[in-house]
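Please decode residue identities from the backbone states below.
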């Protein structure tokens, strides 16, 4: 078990009340756990802002698919940035609105530029870019690359039945 350090903080009553409400919604079991979560989140965001290393991002946005040429423009834009896009998913919210989620990888500056450009397109109602990175000093040292021939390990595909060999 990791050694923990005990600290004390002082908060005005209204901020403490808001923090306790946030803690309750977040599912943190106690105030210490909630503070640790907030500190970790801020550290990741700060590291992402200044990182020149490999980052991953999730760009999610809602748009009006009736906006003239928007589907084509978004599709063209994604094809122009194919080297940074890992995956996309598309959800029909209602007859007018769609949710697009794009998983990205690249430098912080590149991912922010992609996010800013997509979110500025006419017809995009709102969205956000979340960036994260894996601390390379805490990894296993194992780099995981493979083709989809699955020669050295198996993947589970929920929509396919696996065949026994």
């Amino acid at each position: 078990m990791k050694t923990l350090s005990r600290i004390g903080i002082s908060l005005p009553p209204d901020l403490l009340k808001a923090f306790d409400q946030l803690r309750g919604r977040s599912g943190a079991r106690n105030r210490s756990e909630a503070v640790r979560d907030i500190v970790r989140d801020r550290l990741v965001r700060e590291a992402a802002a200044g990182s020149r290393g490999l980052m991953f991002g999730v760009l999610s946005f809602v748009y009006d698919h009736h906006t003239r040429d928007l589907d084509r423009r978004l599709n063209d834009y994604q094809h122009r940035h194919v080297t940074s896009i890992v995956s996309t998913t598309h959800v029909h919210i209602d007859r007018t609105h769609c949710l697009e989620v794009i998983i990205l990888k690249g430098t912080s500056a590149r991912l922010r530029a992609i996010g800013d450009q997509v979110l500025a397109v006419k017809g995009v109602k709102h969205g956000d870019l979340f960036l994260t990175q894996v601390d390379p000093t805490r990894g296993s040292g194992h780099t995981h690359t493979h083709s989809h021939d699955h020669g050295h390990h198996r993947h589970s595909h929920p929509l396919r039945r696996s065949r026994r060999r």
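Observation: The chain has four helices and four strands.
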